[in-house]
Write a structure and sequence with these properties.
2 helices, mainly alpha, 56 residues
Length: 56
């Protein structure tokens, strides 16, 4: 897993979780969904990079 992609994945996951939790506290469901999507994108990026590493 390249360092840049690993960092992007972690940033997306942390930012998504922060947005989601803040939105839930403010009862903003649309923003919570966007945060959850950002978190999921980070997890998907991390999974993709781990799969690439397995085939090397």
């Amino acid at each position: 897993m390249s360092a840049g992609e690993k960092a992007k994945a972690q940033i997306e996951q942390v930012a998504g979780k922060a947005v989601r939790k803040t939105a839930h506290a403010l009862r903003k469901e649309t923003m919570a969904a966007k945060g959850a999507a950002l978190e999921a994108r980070g997890k998907a990026r991390q999974g993709k990079e781990k799969a690439k590493d397995r085939f090397r």
